[in-house]
Amino acid sequence: MLNIFSKKPSFEKDTIRLKNGKDLTITFLRHASLLFEYDGKVIYSDPVAEFEGFRIDFEKLPQADLILVSHDHYDHLDCDVIDTLWRDGTVIVCNEVSKQQLADAIVMHNGDSISLFDGEITVEAVPAYNITEGHLQFHPKDRDNGYIITIGGTRIYIAGDTEDTTEAYAIKDIDIAFLPVNQPYTMTLQQAANLARAIAPAILYPYHYTDTDIVQLSNLLSDTNIEVRLRKMP
Questions:
Q1: Phi, psi angles (nearest 5°) of residue 154
Q2: What Å distances lie between residue 225 and 199, 210, 221, 228, CA to CA?
Q3: What residue ranges do the domains of the chain occupy?
């Protein structure tokens, strides 16, 4: 039986003071779906209504100014949800494959960047792919996106479905990172810990973790200055 919200949904939230002194509120929706609210702007990353028997009614959530879609897998791209969140002026950013389902979207390839809302927000598309033999078919190189969004001078890395690639290790100056930790599709806990040590965000959120024991990630990074925040994303 599906767990369907009949009233306004309740999720865990964090509010973070950005480098420009303004606040960013992060709502942890589920799996890979995130909601960011900043200075009147509403940003979603991979909003999906249903995953493993849990459903969100997005009609009860605010419509979007910006929607980021990393790739076209069912747990990252939900066209019905995007239709619900869309309003006049909504910007949708996606990888090339997802464009086949999102006629009005802006395609970004790995390495592209775009400035939005009079320079308030910058989006960079970065590689997201598998590197482990036997897993390469899940997320082939040069197809999918992770994103770095810069808001109020603060850089946020939303890794998408990836392992700890060479390109990921080269990412610099990240303040907040979202790293996926479920096998066999994304990173092991050790891979995520290794990558976190390399990019050294002030705050790390494991996400896309399904039944992974994410407490172990905190243990692996206990000797660093990285604040590992564990949030419920059913």
A1: -105, 130
A2: 12, 26, 8, 9
A3: 12-228
CA atoms within 13 A on the CB side of 181: 26
Contacts of 191 (CB under 8 A, 6+ apart): 163, 164
pTM, 2 dp: 0.95
SS3 state at 223: coil
Average pLDDT, the chain: 94
In CATH, what number does 12-228 get?
3.60.15.10
CA 174 to chain centre: 14
Residue with tokens 């890979």: 32
Model pLDDT for residues 146-203, shown as the tens digit of each residue: 999 999 999 999 999 999 999 999 999 999 999 999 989 999 999 999 999 999 999 9
Say how many Å lie between the first and final Cα of the chain, rounded.
Answer: 15
